[in-house]
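Bug #77: duplicate submission created two jobs. Keeping one. Sequence:
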Amino acid sequence: MYSKILTTTIILILFSTAVHAEQDKTIAQLINDLEDLKPASAEKYSEINDIKEKTLLFLYGMEREKVDPDVNKFVYAVKTFIINFDSTYQLTTGNTPQDHKNAVDIASVIQKSAGDLRNVFQSSYVLNKNEPKKVVELAESLTKKFLIDEGNHFKTLADKEKVTPIKIEYIEYGIKAYNLAGENTFSLEKELEDLNSKFKEDLNIAEIETLEGDNLFNESEGRKNSPIVLGLFGLLNANAHINEAIGKYESAEKIYVDNGFNLEHCPPDYKDLYNEVNKKKNNAIESASFITLRLMMSYGIFITIITILLILFIRGYINQRKDLMDTQLNKVLKRK
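Kept job's structure:
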């Protein structure tokens, strides 16, 4: 943000204070001023040099003795456009998304420069020549080309981006650049609308899933310390709730992963949502392990008690049968 404001300020200050000094320059001085310009943007946009060369060609054909003020104004407008365009272009050479955002944010500066150039051209009969006309057309077409390139750049970034909030921002900047260029953005705006709608829906669902998971987790926590034997049903209930809570957290986590919240370059606010639900899921898994252990202990003790009771019952039954058989045998012996 600071670099964006600083760059804009430099551009505006640089050309708002020099206009009066430009009005009384000689043809030689105007030519020297233009020849001194070495725009770095010419490496990518050869049109910027064409603008410079056609303006020089126009000046070479002018009388040296008397310079019409409109010629001074026109050359000043050309210089303003070249330097403003070059300054804006150089913002993009860092090739980071933020550099390109800054360039689009101040692109209105070069649009205004191109507009000023046309206004100067149209307001003077002295400039009604082929070269000035071509210079104006080149400035306008170059501005449009640059903005379309920036729009394409952000569209490409958006197509590759996995983090939804960043993807949305790239599409917004693509639309902004295309709009400045006068291009149709209907399909891109529809894509943005659909993406925003789905993103909001995803966040809402993930929030609900997380809250439901929290409620289930809290219910499970209240029962997981139930007595091992007498509280068996409480442990079973806690186990059911904690597993359901894990499912809710996993559902929310998947939504966040699908929107790229787990990626390194994701904005902190969104990454925190993923980290939070991931931590809750891991805590729930740890709690589920504890409950499972207590259930296994409860089952073991319960089975041991049942086994002992069964052994005692069987032993008692056998003894009872033995006593009965002894009694019957005694009766038979007495009869004999």
